[in-house]
Structures are given as structure tokens and as C-alpha cells.
Design a protein that fits this description.
Rossmann fold, about 350 residues, globular, alpha/beta, 11 strands
């Protein structure tokens, strides 16, 4: 695309998650990111949206929430084409884990209105698309599923021996204890005392105190680590565990598989889409079942580790997402200007 033809995108998000930053970087290669920051609630959010949209060509939002609602509403009024990435909290309805906008209340209606305002919805897994259709009554005609692209920071399988480490990654907070399977992971450690269990993630509230109170001596809580340290854990760990009740995609699972970790997962959400037959499935998120699956995964062959890595490279290449998202943006732009 010629420099003079580069379109300006107003990019709205509510956090700096890895997958959001990946999209920002991908779009920056072909478009001018006119504004990139989390939009605040009314009335500041409305003012920020107006400033960002008035000179932009296209609106690109992550997640259906208050943050995207104001931008999408103004885009509709200004007749600016818009895309909204969905999946996760905005389309979930999981009362057992106190998770999901679609459980009811104002969050449900704001998320649904945001989805109706967008020209295109981009769920990042088949499961997320099914949730949007089932829980939020979204029409499949407005949906284009595009998988998250997973960059490969390793280049090849790590050339160091795998250690007897079971790893899980996620923010340590009350909601994630069960939703992300952190609590059963910690409980499972007592059944495998010769295995080092590692929990990597920010201590977001006092639930770390609870986890420490139930943890056996072979559990390590690292807190937040640098990107370099996280990659080192991926290289060293034999097994990556995600005993979740819900997953919109499972980026950490995919990252671990690139490093040759054997995934141990539940069949929740999109996890089977990511892992396929390249991991081991826990019969339930109960600690005893998780421990059994970890024990089996620890003796996996090098060929299975190579298959796990190859699956991510083949199914979730970063270039594929870039190409598909860019095509959708340009198609939307051309159609809006042809009217």
C-alpha cells in the first residue's frame, strides 16, 4: 500500500494484554494508528472518542464494553466504518465462576449494543463465535472469525533438557482461581511431590495468601516476571497446565507449545481448538484428575513436543491474522465509500 493511501485507524482498547499489543503492531505495518489508548468512562471517554474519530478513517476496537461502546456509537453517527474484536468476558455467561457480561445487568446490554453498532465482529476462536451467537444473539452474518496470531520467539525447540516442571500462567486473583484453574493446579501439586509446580502471574489481590495457605512445598509463586523470564520458564518446563472453566482462546497454552511444553488442559472453551491431539486432557478440573494428566504428560516423547510446536506454527501464524484483518479492513473501507 502506498504511503499516500494509508488509512488512519482509531484503535480503542481497555488494557495492554499481549494479544491487543500484537494487533496494534500488525496494523501499524499497513495503517496509521491515529490514536492508541484505553478510553475512559463517560464523559471523558466520549470526548476522547470524538477527538480520535473525527480525523480517522476506520475504528478498530477490542472487546464489547463501555470502552468500545462510546467509540462505536460515535462512529455510527459519524458514518465511520468499525470493527470490534470479541471473545472472553464480553460474550461469556458463566455464573459458576462469576464471569461474563452476558450474565445480566447493564454490562449485558452495553456489550450487546456495542456488538450491534459494529459493522464487523471478529471473534478469535470458533468457540468465541458460538458464544456470541448463543449468549448475545449475534447474527453470524456480521461475524468473521480470525484466530489470534501467535508469534514464535523461540525459532526452534529449546536445546536445553526439559525439567520436571509443571507451569501455569495467569493473573492471580479471586476470579481466576477457578476460571483459569489456578486453585486445582496448586492442590494437584500435593499429589506429585517430586514435580516442581510454578505459578507465574501478577498478584492482583489477596488471593495469593489463600493459595500459599493451601500450597505444598513444591509450589513456587513467582508473581509478575519479565518477558525474558517467562520465555525461560517455557523453555524449562515439561508440562503446561490450563485447568480452566472457560477460555476464549488460550494464548499462554499456544506460547508454551511453541517451546515444546506438553499441554494439560480441560475441554473448556477453545482449548481443544488450540491443542487438538497434541496434549493431554484432564477428565475434569478436579485436582486428582489434573495430577493424573500431568503425570502422563511428563513422560511424553520429544516427537510429541515437536508436534505440539508444529501445530501452533501451522494453525496460528501471525502473518495469517495480519493478512485476514487487513483484507477485512480494506473491504469495509471500500464498501463504505462505494455507497
Amino acid at each position: 500500500m502506498k504511503e499516500s493511501e494509508r488509512r488512519k485507524i482509531f484503535f480503542v482498547h481497555s488494557g495492554n494484554e499481549t494479544f491487543v499489543k500484537l494487533d496494534r503492531d500488525l496494523l501499524s505495518a499497513s495503517f496509521d494508528i491515529y490514536a492508541f489508548y484505553a478510553v475512559r468512562k463517560f464523559p471523558i471517554g466520549l470526548i476522547q472518542c470524538w477527538r480520535g474519530l473525527k480525523d480517522a478513517d476506520i475504528l478498530f476496537c477490542w472487546f464489547a464494553s463501555w470502552n468500545s461502546f462510546w467509540a462505536l456509537l460515535l462512529a455510527k453517527l459519524l458514518r465511520k466504518p468499525s470493527l470490534l474484536v470479541i471473545g472472553g468476558y464480553d460474550v461469556a455467561d458463566l455464573p459458576s465462576a462469576n464471569y461474563g457480561s452476558q450474565r445480566g445487568g447493564i454490562a449485558k446490554w452495553i456489550s450487546r449494543w456495542a456488538m450491534k453498532l459494529a459493522n464487523w465482529l471478529i471473534p478469535f476462536s470458533n468457540y468465541s463465535q458460538q458464544e456470541a451467537e448463543r449468549n448475545a444473539n449475534v447474527s453470524s452474518n456480521s461475524i468473521k472469525m480470525i484466530y489470534i496470531g501467535v508469534p514464535d520467539p523461540f525459532g526452534s525447540l529449546p536445546n536445553i533438557p526439559k525439567e520436571k516442571i509443571a507451569l501455569t500462567v495467569g493473573n492471580v486473583d479471586r476470579q481466576n482461581l477457578k476460571r483459569k484453574g489456578i486453585e486445582p493446579f496448586v492442590h494437584a501439586a500435593a499429589q506429585l511431590p517430586d514435580v516442581q509446580f510454578v505459578v507465574v502471574g501478577t498478584w492482583a489481590d489477596d488471593s495469593i495468601d489463600y493459595l500459599r495457605s493451601i500450597a505444598s512445598p513444591n509450589v513456587l509463586f513467582t508473581g509478575r516476571v519479565s518477558d525474558k523470564e517467562l520465555l525461560d520458564y517455557y523453555r524449562r518446563a515439561s508440562v503446561y497446565v490450563q485447568a480452566s472453566l472457560h477460555e476464549g482462546f488460550g494464548l499462554s497454552v499456544a506460547e508454551a507449545m511453541l517451546a515444546g511444553c506438553i499441554p494439560v488442559i480441560t475441554r473448556a472453551g477453545s482449548l481443544p481448538e488450540v491443542v487438538g491431539d497434541c496434549g493431554h486432557y484432564s477428565d475434569s478440573p478436579e485436582p486428582s484428575d489434573v495430577a493424573k494428566a500431568i503425570e502422563i504428560a511428563l513422560i511424553s516423547s520429544m516427537s510429541m513436543r515437536a508436534r505440539a510446536r508444529e501445530r501452533i506454527l501451522r494453525n496460528f501464524p501471525i502473518e495469517q491474522r495480519k493478512q485476514l484483518v487487513e483484507q477485512l479492513i480494506l473491504s469495509l473501507w471500500n464498501n463504505s465509500n462505494a455507497k
